[in-house]
Amino acid sequence: MTQAQPSAKDVTGYILQKYGPMTHMKLQKLLYYSQAWSLVWDERPIFGDPIQAWVNGPVVRSVYAELRQSFNVSSDDLSTGPDLLDKSAKETVDVVLEFYGQRSAQYLSDLTHMEDPWNEARKGLSPNERSEREITHASMAEYYSGLQA
Predict the structure, then answer these.
(1) CB–CB of 96/11 below 8 Å?
(2) Within a domain: 32
(3) Would you say the pTM of this structure is higher than 0.90?
């Protein structure tokens, strides 16, 4: 029997359990990098929810919708937990947290703005224009696999 794919909320639960409370913006960027590096290292998405190219960087709308009232978020704010993540997914998130976790939310937002996947998804939009355009798995896999060469 195949295990169900974790949702972005499941990954959120794991991130918050491992790292502790953080700003919602930082959480969104850590979700994005967890997805991107899972596509490269594990050759699969870590969660099925789409990631949109918002003005302040990548955002998982389903997580935003649940946590939008909170500037700072913790595992207490969630209705789900990390139970669906397998060992490989947890290892990917652990490495992402180790590398990106000490960075500020603004640093991570600025970093995503310098990288191709977010820029490609926002092509033709003005800097402050709202968008629900999706950052594709293909663009993330292509860009981040090129970084590890």
Answers:
(1) no
(2) yes
(3) yes
